[in-house]
Specification:
The protein is an all-alpha fold and 230 residues long. The chain has one domain. It is built from 9 helices and no strands. It is globular.
Length: 230
Protein backbone atom coordinates (compact mmCIF):
# COMPACT_ATOMS: atom_id res chain seq x y z
CA UNK A 1 0.00 0.00 0.00
CA UNK A 2 1.25 3.45 -0.93
CA UNK A 3 0.07 6.68 0.75
CA UNK A 4 0.05 8.11 -2.75
CA UNK A 5 -3.01 5.97 -3.46
CA UNK A 6 -4.94 7.99 -0.86
CA UNK A 7 -4.06 11.17 -2.75
CA UNK A 8 -5.15 9.51 -6.01
CA UNK A 9 -8.48 8.47 -4.45
CA UNK A 10 -9.02 11.92 -2.91
CA UNK A 11 -8.22 13.61 -6.21
CA UNK A 12 -10.62 11.32 -8.08
CA UNK A 13 -13.42 12.13 -5.62
CA UNK A 14 -12.69 15.88 -5.70
CA UNK A 15 -12.74 16.09 -9.51
CA UNK A 16 -15.88 13.94 -9.57
CA UNK A 17 -17.64 16.33 -7.20
CA UNK A 18 -16.40 19.31 -9.21
CA UNK A 19 -17.74 17.74 -12.39
CA UNK A 20 -21.16 17.26 -10.81
CA UNK A 21 -21.36 20.85 -9.59
CA UNK A 22 -19.88 22.69 -12.57
CA UNK A 23 -23.16 23.10 -14.40
CA UNK A 24 -24.34 25.35 -11.58
CA UNK A 25 -21.06 27.26 -11.43
CA UNK A 26 -20.76 27.65 -15.22
CA UNK A 27 -24.20 27.20 -16.85
CA UNK A 28 -23.95 25.96 -20.45
CA UNK A 29 -25.00 28.39 -23.20
CA UNK A 30 -27.95 27.40 -25.44
CA UNK A 31 -25.57 26.00 -28.07
CA UNK A 32 -24.06 23.55 -25.52
CA UNK A 33 -27.21 22.36 -23.75
CA UNK A 34 -27.57 19.32 -26.02
CA UNK A 35 -24.23 18.07 -24.74
CA UNK A 36 -24.21 19.04 -21.08
CA UNK A 37 -21.85 16.29 -19.93
CA UNK A 38 -19.24 17.44 -22.47
CA UNK A 39 -19.52 21.02 -21.19
CA UNK A 40 -18.89 19.80 -17.64
CA UNK A 41 -16.10 17.51 -18.80
CA UNK A 42 -14.17 20.28 -20.55
CA UNK A 43 -14.45 22.66 -17.60
CA UNK A 44 -13.23 19.90 -15.26
CA UNK A 45 -10.24 19.32 -17.55
CA UNK A 46 -9.55 23.07 -17.62
CA UNK A 47 -9.61 23.15 -13.81
CA UNK A 48 -6.95 20.43 -13.69
CA UNK A 49 -4.74 22.16 -16.27
CA UNK A 50 -4.98 25.51 -14.49
CA UNK A 51 -4.44 24.36 -10.89
CA UNK A 52 -2.33 27.20 -9.41
CA UNK A 53 0.06 24.97 -7.48
CA UNK A 54 0.42 22.09 -9.89
CA UNK A 55 0.90 21.81 -13.61
CA UNK A 56 1.38 25.45 -14.59
CA UNK A 57 4.16 25.80 -11.97
CA UNK A 58 6.12 22.80 -13.25
CA UNK A 59 8.69 25.01 -15.05
CA UNK A 60 9.32 26.84 -11.73
CA UNK A 61 10.06 23.55 -10.05
CA UNK A 62 12.87 22.84 -12.51
CA UNK A 63 14.23 26.35 -12.03
CA UNK A 64 14.19 26.06 -8.24
CA UNK A 65 15.53 22.48 -8.28
CA UNK A 66 18.08 22.34 -11.15
CA UNK A 67 19.42 19.00 -9.87
CA UNK A 68 16.15 17.39 -10.96
CA UNK A 69 16.93 18.00 -14.65
CA UNK A 70 20.02 15.79 -14.24
CA UNK A 71 18.26 13.00 -12.33
CA UNK A 72 14.63 12.43 -13.31
CA UNK A 73 14.57 8.99 -11.69
CA UNK A 74 15.23 9.44 -7.97
CA UNK A 75 15.24 13.22 -7.45
CA UNK A 76 12.11 15.31 -7.00
CA UNK A 77 11.19 18.40 -4.94
CA UNK A 78 8.77 18.30 -1.98
CA UNK A 79 5.18 18.00 -3.08
CA UNK A 80 6.02 16.68 -6.54
CA UNK A 81 4.92 13.14 -5.69
CA UNK A 82 1.53 14.40 -4.48
CA UNK A 83 1.21 16.52 -7.62
CA UNK A 84 1.63 13.47 -9.85
CA UNK A 85 -0.85 11.53 -7.67
CA UNK A 86 -3.42 14.34 -8.05
CA UNK A 87 -3.03 14.14 -11.82
CA UNK A 88 -3.52 10.36 -11.77
CA UNK A 89 -6.79 10.93 -9.90
CA UNK A 90 -7.90 13.46 -12.51
CA UNK A 91 -7.08 11.20 -15.47
CA UNK A 92 -8.95 8.32 -13.81
CA UNK A 93 -11.99 10.56 -13.28
CA UNK A 94 -11.88 11.78 -16.89
CA UNK A 95 -11.51 8.19 -18.13
CA UNK A 96 -14.60 7.09 -16.19
CA UNK A 97 -16.55 10.18 -17.28
CA UNK A 98 -15.91 9.53 -20.98
CA UNK A 99 -16.54 5.80 -20.62
CA UNK A 100 -19.95 6.45 -19.05
CA UNK A 101 -21.12 9.30 -21.29
CA UNK A 102 -19.55 8.94 -24.72
CA UNK A 103 -19.63 6.22 -27.36
CA UNK A 104 -16.44 4.23 -27.66
CA UNK A 105 -15.80 5.10 -31.31
CA UNK A 106 -15.90 8.80 -30.39
CA UNK A 107 -13.58 8.64 -27.40
CA UNK A 108 -11.19 5.71 -28.00
CA UNK A 109 -8.22 8.00 -28.77
CA UNK A 110 -8.53 9.90 -25.49
CA UNK A 111 -9.25 6.72 -23.54
CA UNK A 112 -6.10 5.19 -25.01
CA UNK A 113 -4.13 8.34 -24.20
CA UNK A 114 -5.41 8.37 -20.61
CA UNK A 115 -4.59 4.67 -20.18
CA UNK A 116 -0.95 5.30 -21.11
CA UNK A 117 -0.72 8.32 -18.78
CA UNK A 118 -2.35 6.48 -15.87
CA UNK A 119 0.06 3.54 -16.22
CA UNK A 120 3.18 5.73 -16.50
CA UNK A 121 2.19 8.15 -13.72
CA UNK A 122 0.90 5.27 -11.60
CA UNK A 123 4.36 3.67 -11.67
CA UNK A 124 5.88 6.94 -10.46
CA UNK A 125 3.33 7.20 -7.62
CA UNK A 126 3.75 3.60 -6.46
CA UNK A 127 7.55 3.40 -6.73
CA UNK A 128 8.37 7.01 -5.75
CA UNK A 129 10.66 7.03 -8.79
CA UNK A 130 10.49 8.77 -12.17
CA UNK A 131 8.53 11.57 -10.50
CA UNK A 132 10.78 14.12 -12.22
CA UNK A 133 10.05 12.48 -15.56
CA UNK A 134 6.33 12.72 -14.82
CA UNK A 135 6.75 16.42 -13.97
CA UNK A 136 8.29 17.01 -17.39
CA UNK A 137 5.26 15.30 -18.93
CA UNK A 138 2.97 17.63 -16.96
CA UNK A 139 4.42 20.60 -18.85
CA UNK A 140 2.00 19.47 -21.56
CA UNK A 141 -0.86 20.72 -19.37
CA UNK A 142 0.23 24.33 -19.96
CA UNK A 143 -0.92 23.94 -23.54
CA UNK A 144 -4.03 22.04 -22.39
CA UNK A 145 -5.35 25.28 -20.85
CA UNK A 146 -5.69 26.83 -24.32
CA UNK A 147 -6.78 23.55 -25.89
CA UNK A 148 -9.70 23.32 -23.46
CA UNK A 149 -10.51 27.03 -23.89
CA UNK A 150 -10.73 26.37 -27.63
CA UNK A 151 -13.30 23.63 -27.04
CA UNK A 152 -15.31 25.85 -24.70
CA UNK A 153 -15.40 28.66 -27.28
CA UNK A 154 -16.45 26.17 -29.97
CA UNK A 155 -19.30 24.85 -27.83
CA UNK A 156 -20.36 28.41 -26.98
CA UNK A 157 -20.52 29.16 -30.74
CA UNK A 158 -17.85 31.86 -30.48
CA UNK A 159 -15.68 30.71 -33.38
CA UNK A 160 -15.87 33.98 -35.32
CA UNK A 161 -14.50 36.16 -32.54
CA UNK A 162 -11.20 37.86 -31.77
CA UNK A 163 -10.98 35.84 -28.56
CA UNK A 164 -11.10 32.56 -30.49
CA UNK A 165 -8.51 33.74 -33.01
CA UNK A 166 -6.14 34.93 -30.28
CA UNK A 167 -6.59 31.69 -28.36
CA UNK A 168 -5.89 29.71 -31.55
CA UNK A 169 -2.54 31.48 -32.01
CA UNK A 170 -1.51 30.96 -28.37
CA UNK A 171 -2.76 27.38 -28.50
CA UNK A 172 -0.62 26.60 -31.55
CA UNK A 173 2.48 28.28 -30.09
CA UNK A 174 2.22 26.53 -26.72
CA UNK A 175 1.45 23.27 -28.51
CA UNK A 176 4.81 23.35 -30.29
CA UNK A 177 6.73 24.36 -27.14
CA UNK A 178 4.99 22.35 -24.41
CA UNK A 179 3.80 19.29 -26.31
CA UNK A 180 5.95 18.54 -29.34
CA UNK A 181 9.23 19.91 -27.94
CA UNK A 182 8.60 18.40 -24.49
CA UNK A 183 7.88 14.94 -25.92
CA UNK A 184 10.99 15.20 -28.11
CA UNK A 185 13.09 16.09 -25.04
CA UNK A 186 11.62 13.19 -23.06
CA UNK A 187 12.33 10.76 -25.90
CA UNK A 188 15.91 12.03 -26.10
CA UNK A 189 16.35 11.69 -22.31
CA UNK A 190 15.12 8.10 -22.40
CA UNK A 191 17.52 7.25 -25.22
CA UNK A 192 20.53 8.86 -23.49
CA UNK A 193 19.73 7.28 -20.10
CA UNK A 194 18.68 3.81 -21.24
CA UNK A 195 21.55 2.22 -19.26
CA UNK A 196 20.35 3.87 -16.01
CA UNK A 197 16.70 2.83 -16.36
CA UNK A 198 15.57 -0.75 -15.59
CA UNK A 199 14.39 -2.68 -18.69
CA UNK A 200 10.74 -2.82 -17.59
CA UNK A 201 10.53 0.94 -16.89
CA UNK A 202 12.46 1.69 -20.09
CA UNK A 203 10.02 -0.44 -22.09
CA UNK A 204 7.00 1.34 -20.56
CA UNK A 205 8.54 4.77 -21.23
CA UNK A 206 9.54 3.90 -24.80
CA UNK A 207 6.11 2.51 -25.65
CA UNK A 208 4.49 5.56 -24.05
CA UNK A 209 6.58 7.95 -26.13
CA UNK A 210 5.96 5.88 -29.27
CA UNK A 211 2.22 6.23 -28.70
CA UNK A 212 2.08 9.86 -27.51
CA UNK A 213 4.32 11.40 -30.18
CA UNK A 214 2.27 10.37 -33.26
CA UNK A 215 -1.00 11.16 -31.46
CA UNK A 216 0.18 14.69 -30.70
CA UNK A 217 1.50 15.25 -34.22
CA UNK A 218 -1.86 14.14 -35.67
CA UNK A 219 -3.74 16.46 -33.29
CA UNK A 220 -1.42 19.34 -34.25
CA UNK A 221 -2.24 18.74 -37.92
CA UNK A 222 -5.96 18.71 -37.15
CA UNK A 223 -5.72 21.99 -35.22
CA UNK A 224 -3.70 23.60 -37.99
CA UNK A 225 -6.16 22.47 -40.65
CA UNK A 226 -9.24 23.45 -38.65
CA UNK A 227 -8.13 26.89 -37.38
CA UNK A 228 -5.81 28.15 -40.11
CA UNK A 229 -6.21 26.20 -43.38
CA UNK A 230 -10.00 25.97 -43.54
Amino acid sequence: FSPGLLVVAGSFAAFRLLNRGLERLVPPPPSARRNRWKWRNIWTSLAHSALPDTDNLSPCRFYLHPEMSKDLVGTHPPGAHSLVAVSVGYFLEDFVDMLCNQKLHQSWELLFHHSVVIICFGIAVLLHQYVGFALVALLVEINSIFLHLRQILLMANLVHTTCYRLNSLINLGTYVVFRIATLAWMTRWLFLNRQNVPPAAYAVGTVGMAIMTPMNIILFYRLLRSDFFK
